[in-house]
Amino acid sequence: MTSLPANSSQKKLGLVIDLDVCVGCHACAVNCKEWNTGGHMAPLTDRQPYGADPLGVWLNRVHTFEAGDGADGRTVHFPRSCLHCEQPACVEVCPTGASYKRAEDGIVLVNESLCIGCKLCSWACPYGAREYDYDSGTMKKCTLCIDRIYNENLEEIDRVPACVATCPAHARHFGDLGDPDSDVSKIVAERGGYDLMPEMGYAPVNKYLPPRPRQTAAGCTGALPALEPVGDSSTANAVLRWIDRLLSR
Amino acid sequence: MHPANSVIFFTVASGAGYGLLLLLGVGGALGWLPPDRWFGAAAFGLSLAAITFGLLSSTFHLGHPERAWRAVSQWRSSWLSREGLASLIAYLPTGVYAIAWVLFGRNNGAWGLFGLIAAAWAAITVYCTGMIYASLRPIQRWHNSYVVPCYLLLGVMTGALWLNALAHLFGLASDGLTLVAVAALVIGWPLKLAYWRFIDNSRSESTAETATGLGHLGKVRLFEAPHTEENYLMREMGFRIARKHAYRLRVFATIFAFVLPFLLTALTLALVQPVAGTAAVLAAVSVILGVLIERWLFFAEAKHTVTLYYGQSTA
Fold it and tell me: Is A96's CB within 8 Å of B70's CB?
């Protein structure tokens, strides 16, 4: 059913992406591809991967932007994936019921066996979260790794989306953004996490944390301003005095 | 947006077919069109052929055409689903009315009711087609109040020119039909011009700054794309057309969709047969060519907000 769930729970699972910390290594995108090409959305087809005109389905893409100019300019690495919106028009435009938003946790999914590949959902998404698979003839999208986060065969620590599990900089956080006391909600409140294109009215669940203000002065680390000078003639040790004389010649 | 041939053909053909159907239903029911059987057979045949081939062609761009029947299920939320359902419902009153007209030679009175119902479903279907595009917020050049009237009016306009040509071919030409065609052209032309003026002078609220949320740092520009080759998003949503090409195509669309049909149709009033009939047929052919160009531009000139992540500063 592509109407949005009427009695959805308060639970809003999603990601918080820290643009201050992201180093743009693309590990999240690669591990996403790796996991999901064998997971719920499998396969994520690549066409001519080693040919002249490669084309492949990825559910996570890392852009790099420059913002501002001169000394105040910043280079910001910007991972982009499905935001699991609270008002996902991609779901509502689906003519077959293949796209749906889960009432229990707010995850937006595609039932691949109902999808007719009309591509209208990808037109309805302002964020470019959905990518069409020319091989399977169906639409592919981020599942929030639904086959990891509830997977009891995995260690509990691994029950997070593949992109979060792999991020070497801890720039990605996963949790319940509907619970104001969750770690992700707290970090969003503390750091001023924001929505992408709020003017579109899609009410994304995923939040982005802005780059922290530039620091112009280094703080005190507690170290001494400089080390003691060496080779002073007043050195007490006779052997060192002799070496000092030898080297000073 | 990538202009897909199947969708362009579908919207033009079904628009003309439903426009013709609407005029047949209303014109027949109100007694403006004689219940001539051969004329009816040709008109319903043309209308239903355009609609049916259009609908079939729209399934060609699907990844799974064999599942197309599923598309009528989500009419509560989806304009595409509503369009599919409305197009199927429209066949029922149209079939009854066409049988009454062609087999029984009756097109008004109680039968006329089926004509009016068929006309209503034709209008509803084209309205749904327009709303598919007008409801998409990420594409500002579609999400505006010009799009649905353009779809409806250009459908009626092409249908009126087809009807006028058919009437000439069957010796049923009347000043009334000619005036309907001229009136549709006279309203359709400024409407399309107004649409072009609107898209030239307005932009999406969304910018590279709102798309990234980095506007507080200053102007945002793409430094490095996420991939070196094109992906689906760039193929489908990243289609761009040079402004000078768009301008030339707008001129061609204007000439073939509005100016030539207007002159040719106006001429039919002054000419005798068979020259008048030839002019009416030429107008019907010209308008299709013009609307095909207009529809190609409708897609090619549309910009999607996802391009903001791929180097565009506005959408």
Answer: yes
Average pLDDT of the residues of chain A = 92
Domain count, chain A: 1
> Which residue's entry shows tokens 């999406």?
B204
- Residue B314: exposed, middle, or buried by beta-carbon count in 10 A (0-12, 13-18, 19+)? middle
Tell me how far apart the alpha carbons of residues A56 and A44 are, in angstroms, rounded to a whole number.
Answer: 7
User: Taking a C-beta distance cutoff of 8 angstroms, is the pair B35, B103 a contact?
Assistant: no
Burial of B266: CB neighbours in 10 Å, binned 0-12, 13-18, 19+? middle
Eight-class DSSP state of A194: B
Tokens of B221: 């520009």
Most B CBs within 10 Å, among A116, A196, A208, A209, to test the B interface: A116
DSSP B303: -
pLDDT at A233 over 60: no
pLDDT, mean of residues B106-125: 94
Residue B212 contacts A where some CB pair is shorter than 8 Å: yes
Q: Could you tell me the pLDDT band of residue B270, with boundaries at 50, 70 and 90?
A: confident
Residue A59 maps to a domain: yes
Domain coordinates of chain B in residue numbers? 5-310
* A37: CATH: 3.30.70.20
**Does A172 reside within a domain?**
yes
Range of the domain at A65: 13-209
Is B74–A95 a contact, with Cβ atoms under 8 angstroms apart? Answer: yes
**pLDDT tops 70 at residue A235:** no
Which 3 state secondary structure label does DSSP give B112?
Answer: helix
Residue B225, pLDDT above cutoff 80: yes
Residues of A within 8 A of B205 (CB-CB) are 199
Indicate the average pLDDT of chain B.
94
DSSP string, B2-54: ---HHHHHHHHHHHHHHHHHHHHHHHHHTT-S---HHHHHHHHHHHHHHHHHH
**Across the interface, do A196 and B138 touch by the CB < 8 Å criterion?**
no
Q: Which residues of B56-66 are buried (b: 16+ CB within 10 A; e: fewer)?
A: ebbbeebbbee
Q: Does residue A3 lie within any of the structural domains?
A: no
Q: Provide the pLDDT confidence category of residue B109 given band limits of 50, 70 and 90.
A: confident
Confidence check: pLDDT of A223 > 80: no
d(CA A37, CA B196): 43
So what's the pLDDT on residue A234? 61
Q: What's the pTM value of the predicted model, to 2 decimals? A: 0.91
Classified by CATH at the fold level, domain B5-310 comes out as Formate dehydrogenase/DMSO reductase fold (1.20.1630)
Is the complex ipTM more than 0.95? Answer: no
